[in-house]
Amino acid sequence: MAGILQSLNKTIIAGIALTILLLIIMSYSYGLSYDHTFWATISRYLHVLSGIMWIGLLWYFNFVQIPNMPNIPDEQKPAIGKVIAPAALFWFRWSALATLITGLTTLALYYGHQGAINTLLLTIPSGFDSPRNLTIGIGMWLAIIMAYNVWMVIWPNQKRALGIVEADAETKAKSARTAMLFSRTNTMLSIPMLLAMVAAQNLA
Questions:
Q1: What is the residue extent of each domain of the chain?
Q2: In angstroms, rounded to a whole number, what is the distance separating the alpha carbons of residues 175 and 4?
Q3: Residues 6+ positions from 100 with CB-CB distance below 8 Å
Q4: How many CA atoms lie within 13 A of 43 on its CB side?
Q5: Global pTM?
Q6: Which of 106, 129, 151, 170 would suit a FRET pair with 18, their CA atoms being 20 to 30 Å apart?
Q7: What is the largest CA-CA distance in the chain?
Q8: What is the pLDDT of residues 140-173, one digit of tens each?
Q9: Where are the beta strands (DSSP E) in 27-154?
Protein backbone atom coordinates (compact mmCIF):
# COMPACT_ATOMS: atom_id res chain seq x y z
CA MET A 1 0.00 0.00 0.00
CA ALA A 2 2.84 2.41 0.81
CA GLY A 3 4.19 1.87 -2.71
CA ILE A 4 0.89 3.10 -4.13
CA LEU A 5 0.46 6.04 -1.77
CA GLN A 6 3.99 7.35 -2.32
CA SER A 7 3.09 8.00 -5.97
CA LEU A 8 0.34 10.50 -6.82
CA ASN A 9 -0.31 8.83 -10.19
CA LYS A 10 -0.69 5.41 -8.57
CA THR A 11 -2.91 6.89 -5.87
CA ILE A 12 -5.23 8.42 -8.49
CA ILE A 13 -5.30 5.18 -10.50
CA ALA A 14 -6.18 3.26 -7.32
CA GLY A 15 -8.97 5.76 -6.59
CA ILE A 16 -10.38 5.33 -10.10
CA ALA A 17 -10.20 1.54 -9.76
CA LEU A 18 -12.11 1.70 -6.45
CA THR A 19 -14.68 3.99 -8.07
CA ILE A 20 -15.21 1.53 -10.93
CA LEU A 21 -15.52 -1.31 -8.40
CA LEU A 22 -18.16 0.68 -6.51
CA LEU A 23 -20.07 1.27 -9.75
CA ILE A 24 -20.02 -2.47 -10.47
CA ILE A 25 -21.30 -3.24 -6.95
CA MET A 26 -24.02 -0.59 -7.34
CA SER A 27 -24.99 -2.01 -10.72
CA TYR A 28 -25.51 -5.51 -9.32
CA SER A 29 -26.99 -4.46 -5.98
CA TYR A 30 -29.34 -1.72 -7.17
CA GLY A 31 -30.02 -2.91 -10.68
CA LEU A 32 -28.49 0.18 -12.26
CA SER A 33 -28.80 0.40 -16.02
CA TYR A 34 -26.47 2.42 -18.18
CA ASP A 35 -29.22 4.73 -19.34
CA HIS A 36 -29.64 8.49 -19.58
CA THR A 37 -29.95 8.85 -15.79
CA PHE A 38 -26.72 6.91 -15.26
CA TRP A 39 -24.74 9.21 -17.56
CA ALA A 40 -26.34 12.29 -16.04
CA THR A 41 -25.16 11.03 -12.64
CA ILE A 42 -21.63 10.42 -13.96
CA SER A 43 -21.62 13.93 -15.44
CA ARG A 44 -22.69 15.40 -12.10
CA TYR A 45 -20.01 13.37 -10.32
CA LEU A 46 -17.33 14.76 -12.67
CA HIS A 47 -18.79 18.23 -12.13
CA VAL A 48 -18.45 17.87 -8.35
CA LEU A 49 -14.90 16.46 -8.65
CA SER A 50 -13.67 19.31 -10.84
CA GLY A 51 -15.54 21.84 -8.68
CA ILE A 52 -13.81 20.59 -5.54
CA MET A 53 -10.44 21.01 -7.25
CA TRP A 54 -11.33 24.51 -8.49
CA ILE A 55 -12.85 25.95 -5.32
CA GLY A 56 -10.31 24.12 -3.15
CA LEU A 57 -7.45 25.83 -4.98
CA LEU A 58 -9.27 29.17 -4.98
CA TRP A 59 -9.60 28.97 -1.22
CA TYR A 60 -6.00 27.73 -0.87
CA PHE A 61 -4.79 30.88 -2.63
CA ASN A 62 -6.99 33.18 -0.54
CA PHE A 63 -6.88 31.48 2.86
CA VAL A 64 -3.30 30.17 2.81
CA GLN A 65 -0.90 31.46 0.15
CA ILE A 66 -1.80 35.16 -0.20
CA PRO A 67 -2.17 35.92 3.54
CA ASN A 68 1.10 34.14 4.38
CA MET A 69 3.30 35.52 1.60
CA PRO A 70 4.41 38.52 3.75
CA ASN A 71 5.61 36.04 6.41
CA ILE A 72 7.88 34.15 4.00
CA PRO A 73 11.55 35.29 3.94
CA ASP A 74 12.49 37.02 0.68
CA GLU A 75 15.06 34.36 -0.20
CA GLN A 76 12.35 31.67 -0.04
CA LYS A 77 9.69 33.48 -2.06
CA PRO A 78 11.08 32.41 -5.46
CA ALA A 79 10.18 28.81 -4.56
CA ILE A 80 6.54 29.88 -4.27
CA GLY A 81 6.55 32.06 -7.39
CA LYS A 82 8.53 29.71 -9.62
CA VAL A 83 7.37 26.27 -8.43
CA ILE A 84 4.26 26.17 -6.24
CA ALA A 85 2.17 28.98 -7.77
CA PRO A 86 2.54 27.93 -11.45
CA ALA A 87 1.62 24.33 -10.62
CA ALA A 88 -1.37 25.43 -8.52
CA LEU A 89 -2.49 27.85 -11.24
CA PHE A 90 -2.32 25.08 -13.85
CA TRP A 91 -4.80 22.91 -11.93
CA PHE A 92 -6.76 26.00 -10.90
CA ARG A 93 -7.54 27.26 -14.39
CA TRP A 94 -8.15 23.86 -16.00
CA SER A 95 -10.38 22.68 -13.17
CA ALA A 96 -12.37 25.92 -13.58
CA LEU A 97 -12.89 25.10 -17.26
CA ALA A 98 -13.72 21.45 -16.47
CA THR A 99 -16.25 22.56 -13.84
CA LEU A 100 -17.94 24.86 -16.33
CA ILE A 101 -18.07 22.25 -19.11
CA THR A 102 -19.32 19.44 -16.87
CA GLY A 103 -21.83 21.83 -15.30
CA LEU A 104 -23.31 22.74 -18.69
CA THR A 105 -23.28 19.07 -19.72
CA THR A 106 -25.03 18.04 -16.52
CA LEU A 107 -27.61 20.79 -16.98
CA ALA A 108 -28.38 19.59 -20.51
CA LEU A 109 -28.57 15.92 -19.46
CA TYR A 110 -30.94 16.59 -16.55
CA TYR A 111 -33.16 19.27 -18.09
CA GLY A 112 -32.87 18.74 -21.83
CA HIS A 113 -32.07 21.36 -24.45
CA GLN A 114 -34.95 23.75 -23.78
CA GLY A 115 -34.82 23.28 -20.00
CA ALA A 116 -31.11 24.10 -20.02
CA ILE A 117 -31.75 27.26 -22.03
CA ASN A 118 -34.58 28.30 -19.69
CA THR A 119 -32.31 27.75 -16.70
CA LEU A 120 -29.52 29.86 -18.18
CA LEU A 121 -32.14 32.54 -18.96
CA LEU A 122 -33.14 32.33 -15.28
CA THR A 123 -36.48 30.75 -16.34
CA ILE A 124 -37.71 34.03 -17.81
CA PRO A 125 -39.58 32.21 -20.61
CA SER A 126 -41.60 30.25 -18.04
CA GLY A 127 -42.35 33.27 -15.86
CA PHE A 128 -40.07 32.29 -12.95
CA ASP A 129 -42.33 29.32 -12.14
CA SER A 130 -39.44 26.96 -11.32
CA PRO A 131 -37.54 27.82 -8.11
CA ARG A 132 -35.04 25.02 -8.80
CA ASN A 133 -34.26 26.26 -12.31
CA LEU A 134 -34.01 29.85 -11.13
CA THR A 135 -31.66 28.92 -8.28
CA ILE A 136 -29.45 26.71 -10.47
CA GLY A 137 -29.41 29.46 -13.10
CA ILE A 138 -28.21 32.02 -10.58
CA GLY A 139 -25.53 29.60 -9.37
CA MET A 140 -24.42 28.87 -12.93
CA TRP A 141 -24.12 32.54 -13.85
CA LEU A 142 -22.03 33.16 -10.74
CA ALA A 143 -19.79 30.24 -11.80
CA ILE A 144 -19.59 31.52 -15.39
CA ILE A 145 -18.46 34.93 -14.12
CA MET A 146 -15.89 33.24 -11.88
CA ALA A 147 -14.56 31.06 -14.74
CA TYR A 148 -14.32 34.15 -16.96
CA ASN A 149 -12.32 35.91 -14.24
CA VAL A 150 -9.96 32.93 -13.99
CA TRP A 151 -9.12 32.76 -17.69
CA MET A 152 -9.48 36.36 -18.82
CA VAL A 153 -8.21 38.30 -15.80
CA ILE A 154 -6.47 36.23 -13.12
CA TRP A 155 -4.34 33.98 -15.36
CA PRO A 156 -3.09 36.74 -17.77
CA ASN A 157 -2.16 38.93 -14.79
CA GLN A 158 -0.52 36.06 -12.89
CA LYS A 159 1.63 35.29 -15.94
CA ARG A 160 3.03 38.82 -15.74
CA ALA A 161 3.27 38.83 -11.94
CA LEU A 162 5.17 35.53 -11.85
CA GLY A 163 7.48 36.41 -14.73
CA ILE A 164 6.08 33.74 -17.05
CA VAL A 165 5.79 36.52 -19.63
CA GLU A 166 8.10 39.54 -19.76
CA ALA A 167 7.00 42.59 -17.76
CA ASP A 168 8.71 45.43 -15.90
CA ALA A 169 8.61 45.69 -12.10
CA GLU A 170 5.74 48.21 -12.07
CA THR A 171 3.61 46.07 -14.38
CA LYS A 172 4.34 42.97 -12.28
CA ALA A 173 3.21 44.73 -9.11
CA LYS A 174 0.06 46.08 -10.75
CA SER A 175 -0.73 42.67 -12.27
CA ALA A 176 -0.24 40.92 -8.93
CA ARG A 177 -2.71 43.31 -7.28
CA THR A 178 -5.27 42.87 -10.08
CA ALA A 179 -5.00 39.08 -9.89
CA MET A 180 -5.41 39.19 -6.12
CA LEU A 181 -8.49 41.44 -6.27
CA PHE A 182 -10.22 39.26 -8.85
CA SER A 183 -9.27 36.15 -6.90
CA ARG A 184 -10.89 37.73 -3.84
CA THR A 185 -13.92 38.56 -6.01
CA ASN A 186 -14.19 34.89 -6.98
CA THR A 187 -13.88 33.87 -3.32
CA MET A 188 -16.75 36.22 -2.47
CA LEU A 189 -18.89 34.87 -5.34
CA SER A 190 -18.10 31.24 -4.51
CA ILE A 191 -20.00 31.46 -1.21
CA PRO A 192 -23.45 32.31 -2.67
CA MET A 193 -22.71 30.15 -5.73
CA LEU A 194 -22.26 27.05 -3.57
CA LEU A 195 -25.44 27.84 -1.64
CA ALA A 196 -27.39 28.12 -4.91
CA MET A 197 -26.07 24.78 -6.18
CA VAL A 198 -26.75 22.94 -2.92
CA ALA A 199 -30.13 24.52 -2.16
CA ALA A 200 -31.46 23.92 -5.69
CA GLN A 201 -31.42 20.16 -5.14
CA ASN A 202 -34.12 20.53 -2.47
CA LEU A 203 -36.42 22.82 -4.46
CA ALA A 204 -39.33 21.75 -6.64
A1: 1-32, 35-200
A2: 40
A3: 143, 144, 147
A4: 19
A5: 0.90
A6: 106
A7: 62
A8: 999 999 999 999 999 999 999 999 999 999 999 9
A9: none
